[in-house]
Structures are given as C-alpha cells and as structure tokens.
Amino acid sequence: MYHISGRHLKERTRMIDKNRLLECIKKPMTDYLNQMKHTLRNWEPLEEAAKKLLNGREVKDDDVPDVYLPVLRMMRLIAEVTRESEWDWSNPAIQKFFANKSESPLYQIFTNAIVGTISEIIQKTDFNTLVEVGTGPGQVSDALCRKMIDDKIHIPLIISDRAPGISRTRETLRQKYPALTIDSFVWNITREPPRELLATLKKPVLLFERFCLPYAGHSAIDNIAPLADLMIMQDDLSLSGEKAAFDILYSKMGTNFLIFKEAEKYLKKHFSFIHTCDADLAQAVNYPVTTFTIALK
Ligand SMILES: C[S@@+](CC[C@H](N)C(=O)[O-])C[C@H]1O[C@@H](n2cnc3c(N)ncnc32)[C@H](O)[C@@H]1O
Asked: Which terminus of the chain is more exposed, N or C, with fewer CB under 10 A?
C-alpha cells in the first residue's frame, strides 16, 4: 500500500467525527429517501422486466411505471446489443443513449443526493481537497461546482477517470467556473494513483465516486481508500449477495456485481466508521441494494 505525506496537514479547526458526519448527512439523506419512496414505491416491476428481457421476450414502455422508463430502456439496450455482440462503448447507439440518460428524473435525484451530501459536509467541516474518481462527463462535478459557487465555498477539486477524455471535462468545468481550482488526472483505479495526483493533495481529503466502482470491482477500494479521510460511494451494493435478473443483465456490459458485505471487508481495512446511509429505503420500496455508503478514517 502506498502512503500519503502529511506535510500539508493543517490543523483541523472543525474536525469531522462520526457524530458530526451523521448530523451533516441527515437532511440530504432524508430528502433522498422521501423522493425515492415517493418516486419508486416498489422496485419489483423492473425485476420482472429484466427476467423477460433475459429470456428474449419483449417489454413495452407501458409495462412499467413511467419513472422506471430510463432504466427499462437501458436494460433493453443491453439485452439487444449483447444478444448479437459484446458490449462496446464506442457503439453509436450506446453513446447516444448515454448522452441523454443523465436528464432522467431518477438520475437527477441521485445527483442531488450526492451533491447535497458533499455540500453539507464541506460547509460544516474543513476539507482541503475534493477528489472524484470515475468522473466521466462530469455531471456530479458540474453540479458540485455550481453549489460551491452558490455557497461561496472554494475547495480545490481534482477529477479523474481512466479515460483520457477527462481533460476535456476539466476544461469545460474551468470555463464554466473560473473562480474554482479544478485539476484532472488520468487514473485507472484498479491501479495505485499517479504520483502527480498525490503531490497535489492537501489533507484532509474528501473522495467521492458515483457508478464507477462497478467497472473497477471491490478490490479497487484498496487503491482509492488510502487517499481519503472521508469517502462517499454511490454504487448499488447488493444486500443479499444474490444476483437478481437485473444484475445478470447489467453484468453483460462488463460491470462487476458489487456486494455490500464484500465491499465492507475492503473498507474495514482503511476506515474506522462505515455507514449505510439509505438502509431504510431497502425495506420501504423492496429495494435489494444500498446505494449510499460513507466511510470515515
Ligand atoms: C457510468 S459512468 C459514471 C460517470 C459519472 N461518475 C457519473 O456518475 O455520471 C462510469 C465511469 O467510470 C469510469 N471508469 C470505469 N472504470 C474505471 C477505472 N477502472 N478507473 C477509473 N475510471 C473508471 C468510466 O470511464 C466512466 O467515466
């Protein structure tokens, strides 16, 4: 395991501890749970749709409640594309689909939840660097930058991705938010971070990611966790450990099936406090996963 120099460590005036952290996430997570309970109600129709698609049967838009349509369309795309060939990100149909996906109400709820959580934390405690892994086109980073401007909080942001296109995302963000300090690095999180990235960190560091870990797998936690004093993960982690039809379908696009217990084993090596923020939701809407996990050193 690599080590991070403590030379930048400044005295923490507003120390983050477990209680303060729980206090900070209370409102954004309550908002998220209420929105999800209202929006989703019951997750089972999607699982039924996934079973049919896996069996090569048709599922019409009308067969599921409107809110699930973006997910149904994604599953349909996976089923259609992988019936004849391997999943290929450069396939034009796939690129077109992803260009519009982030506008769906469900995605907006996810974005508001992670940005709301980060912004509560950085308003109430002192972090000196924000790091995002698997930034992609930067929807979360963009919303976070906008929020930092609105709240008049300027913390240096480092975005990263294994794809070299991350420098384009950085330039777009710099142009939109010239008052902020935004850096970018190519980093495949199945490997240790680049030295240049480590050299720019000022502790304490808040690291976050959304929907990147499924592509990298549980063990990538060993590469990202050493950087983070606090880590926020927004990934679907299975609570039962049993693959649903939904998971089998998604794994066809090369994602790993993530299991909470397995992720927790890795997290425990690096953090003293691990918290599932949305445990209530699993019960309320029959949701087989937890989506928000936070871990504190
Ligand atoms: C589904 S996209 C999510 C993008 C963004 N986080 C969001 O929520 O809108 C997954 C992203 O993870 C990146 N990714 C996949 N595997 C990775 C790895 N091993 N290391 C770093 N980034 C990775 C992909 O390039 C892609 O940008």
From this structure: N
